[in-house]
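F.,

This is the one I mentioned.
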């Protein structure tokens, strides 16, 4: 079996045999002629032969229609909850939806003669999953596939980020797992004038101002009747051809109206601005959120759960302090209906419930976050933008005493190129789910690193990998695409390194206090116009004065 009902927890609790990425996964099937058609035929033939019930459902992800076909009710159930249907998209945004899907997904279980595997074809925007019911990988690969379409056709940047608005300013968190991305997003919600945006994936548009004051983002450029640039390539073309005022630019407004303007109508003296949009309708997020934000438990009790584990007495004993704190918060909560729910349970039952929510890092909940914070404090319209003014690259390095540091372009891009996680793995752009040839990109970056070492060894004044990268012409297209867009992000906002290690401060007595202090550092940093060119470098010894 690929899935089965787990012990009751929340509305439903489905346990999947695979709880992460399939052992076999291939994003390069276009290299083998006919391979995509062979896999799709295997999926379609299985549905015909088996006679099993199947589900087909279209959703809209940032304007892109995606069609999924599956014979697993769990995948269908989470798919429908997670995304906006075409009808919901029209109703909420007031915009029409493309008639045909741009991305096709087949996710079938019980297929004989097929291994547990995931496949992706960029040429046809097709994803095929066999014999896995884990929703997390399906969701992430779909986001990656949609991201490639948006970047290549529209110049829209898809990133594995969290985002929150504070005092009208958008803060974008880019982070590897385990460094506090979700903690930082939810932590900011404890502060006044904050509004929840995203916890997993963000779409960002980079805009220019026209001479009549309108903000638009270019998607294509035509010169003398021929298209010379499209999608993410337009930004570099505009920089390299500032005098081509006869060029015509096809562009879109922030509310998706399509315009065609002569280049002379743009005011390139005004700064580039970034605007971020949500991706999900209902959030598929880690259930261990309750560890730092017990308020979320009030809705998780009514949410669908994936891979909520049972716990044994040893786990309860080893984590009794954390479990006890969560239980106290739940039993003393004044959230409507929630305290009543937990007060019907004995103390032991509440503690076991709390423990199950964080015992397994990859347990997930399908959570309506607007019911946690209230709809007025959450972005629920997928076409409502927030202006991004600050970017935080998170890390957790206890050997580095620096808490917060302004980033140069070279350091910002180098951090993202290397993508080093706390457990020393590499994730380009801190995103393991980009729809790219991971091996090709890894080989390229390793080659750049060797050249950097060689040149430094010869005494050249060169310190950052990005300095080597930008001299090269043979960069894989997918890598070039990603970093052209990150270059635009840097041009649009103030960018910082944020080291989430305040629990190592001797004055900090608990993890929750460390989170509160980190939030104060962030809030203080964004309290001012982002255009002010002030460099910041705080260490664990002097950050206290900064936030006092």
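My design for it:
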């Amino acid at each position: 079996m690929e899935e089965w009902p787990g012990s009751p927890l929340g509305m439903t609790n489905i346990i999947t045999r695979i709880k992460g990425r399939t052992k076999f996964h291939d994003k390069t099937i276009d290299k083998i002629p006919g391979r995509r058609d062979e896999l799709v035929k295997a999926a379609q033939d299985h549905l015909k032969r088996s006679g099993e019930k199947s589900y087909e459902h279209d959703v809209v992800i940032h304007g892109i229609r995606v069609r999924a076909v599956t014979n697993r009710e769990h995948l269908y159930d989470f798919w429908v909850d997670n995304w906006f249907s075409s009808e919901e998209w029209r109703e909420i945004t007031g915009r029409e939806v493309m008639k045909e899907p741009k991305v096709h997904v087949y996710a079938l279980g019980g297929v004989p003669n097929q291994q547990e595997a995931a496949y992706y074809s960029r040429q046809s925007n097709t994803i095929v999953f066999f014999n896995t019911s884990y929703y997390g990988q399906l969701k992430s690969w779909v986001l990656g596939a949609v991201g490639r379409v948006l970047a290549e056709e529209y110049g829209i940047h898809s990133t594995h980020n969290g985002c929150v608005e504070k005092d009208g300013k958008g803060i974008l968190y880019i982070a590897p797992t385990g460094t506090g991305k979700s903690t930082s997003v939810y932590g900011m919600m404890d502060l006044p004038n904050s509004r929840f945006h995203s916890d997993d994936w963000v779409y960002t548009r980079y805009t220019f101002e026209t001479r009549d004051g309108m903000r638009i983002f270019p998607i294509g450029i035509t010169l003398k009747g021929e298209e010379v640039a499209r999608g993410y390539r337009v930004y570099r073309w505009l920089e390299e051809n500032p005098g081509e005022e006869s060029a015509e630019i096809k562009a879109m407004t922030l509310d998706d109206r399509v315009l065609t303007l002569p280049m002379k109508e743009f005011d390139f003296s005004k700064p580039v601005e970034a605007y971020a949009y949500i991706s999900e309708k209902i959030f598929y997020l880690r259930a261990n959120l309750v560890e730092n934000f017990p308020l979320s438990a009030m809705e998780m009790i009514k949410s669908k759960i994936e891979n909520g584990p049972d716990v044994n007495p040893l786990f309860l004993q080893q984590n009794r302090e954390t479990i006890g704190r969560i239980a106290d918060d739940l039993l003393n909560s004044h959230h409507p209906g929630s305290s009543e729910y937990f007060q019907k349970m004995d103390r032991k039952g509440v503690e076991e419930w709390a423990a199950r929510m964080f015992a397994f890092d990859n347990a997930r909940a399908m959570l309506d976050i607007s019911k946690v914070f209230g709809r007025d404090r959450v972005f629920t319209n997928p076409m409502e933008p927030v202006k991004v003014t600050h970017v935080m690259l998170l890390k957790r390095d206890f050997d580095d005493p620096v808490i917060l540091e302004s980033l140069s372009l070279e350091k910002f891009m180098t951090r993202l190129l290397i993508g080093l996680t706390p457990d020393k793995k590499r994730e380009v752009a801190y995103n393991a789910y980009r729809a790219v040839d991971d091996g090709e990109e890894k080989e390229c970056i390793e080659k750049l690193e060797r050249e950097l070492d060689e040149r430094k060894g010869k005494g050249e004044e060169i310190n950052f990998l990005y300095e080597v990268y930008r001299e090269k012409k043979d960069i894989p297209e997918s890598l070039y695409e990603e970093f052209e867009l990150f270059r635009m992000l840097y041009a649009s906002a103030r960018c910082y390194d944020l080291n989430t290690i305040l629990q190592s401060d001797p004055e900090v007595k608990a993890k929750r206090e460390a989170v509160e202090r980190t939030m104060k550092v962030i809030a203080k940093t964004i309290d001012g116009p982002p255009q002010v060119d002030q460099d910041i470098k705080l260490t664990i010894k002097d950050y206290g004065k900064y936030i006092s």
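The mean pLDDT is 93.

Talk soon.
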